[in-house]
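Contributing: when you submit paired examples, paste them exactly as shown. First protein:
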Amino acid sequence: MRIEYSKRAAKYIDSLDRPAKQRIKKAIEGLTEQPPKGDIRMLQGFSDGRKRLRVGKYRIIYNYLPSGEVEILYIVNVDSRGDIYK
């Protein structure tokens, strides 16, 4: 499985301090396992099957995209709990 980041998500992850960045990267790697690990919920109001992963005070919005034989884990957005859903 391949992991791709949106420009917005990559920029936010780069702005974090090292411990937070490591926690988020580890949580994203847990999404590639079968079944995915973590506190995961479906997001309402999206028809493309977006889900959110809770990592402490951070939320990771992601989606699985089929691309031929390889499945892609696409990280849509990463932000703090209060700002992610705006």
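Second protein:
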Amino acid sequence: MKQKEMAVAALCNGIVIDHIPCQSLFKVVNLLGLEGMENSVTIGNNLDSGSMGRKGIIKIADVDLPEETLNRIAVIAPHAVINVIRDYEVVNKHAVELSEELIDIVKCNNPKCISNNEPMRTRFHVVDHEHNTLRCHYCERIVSQSEINLKG
């Protein structure tokens, strides 16, 4: 019999963010501001995945993050899955969803855009959910998934 071994320790209560592309893992860490969090955080990268080959995973103990915060992950990890854990059991599992409008998450790539030259929040509209293509509200520059730069 083949014995299965967990690469990352089990979580009693909290949130597990799974199926993060390896190249996006630390962007997700920064996006969620995890470096300043006092809760226990476990980060695993280049873990085996049947569907992705290799993946990243983040486990955050004893926390409930708002859905809008978790869905921000969809900007850089559109196929990530959120697992809510209670007493070592998954009580809710769902994919992240990219909202129609992104405010103060993505930086416009156009150096002449007003959002890069005035103290204001950036604002993007999703024009293609399948390919994570965004359009700046102010200058209408189109930004593809590979061109996305996060603010901060």
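If you have annotations for the second protein, write them as plain sentences, like these:
Residues 36 and 52 are 29 Å apart (CA to CA).
The longest strand covers residues 41-49.
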